């Protein structure tokens, strides 16, 4: 039996969830897995160590009018590592300054039926 030591349950992103930089409008990558406290980002290029980012993404199954079209969250880069695919980087980020509504939205998506957990 594998013991899980993470503070929050992480759901694998089965669908392509594009992640954009809210400050520049550029796509920075896609979500590998997501929890209410952070995410694994499969980035299109290297990110700055320990930097803060303002990320924007839409969770599958969400529609306009439910907490807005997108989630926009501040995140701090904790680690990164070159992926096996050329030009891709694995990056672990933790969310900072999350509102209660954003945390509830993330928690509801992670716990919704049909998810695979990592």
Automatic annotation (TrEMBL):
Gene Ontology molecular-function annotations: cyclic-di-GMP binding
InterPro entries xref list: PilZ_domain
Pfam families per UniProt: PilZ
Every PilZ domain range: 12-111
Protein name, per record: PilZ domain-containing protein
Lineage: Bacteria, Pseudomonadati, Pseudomonadota, Gammaproteobacteria, Lysobacterales
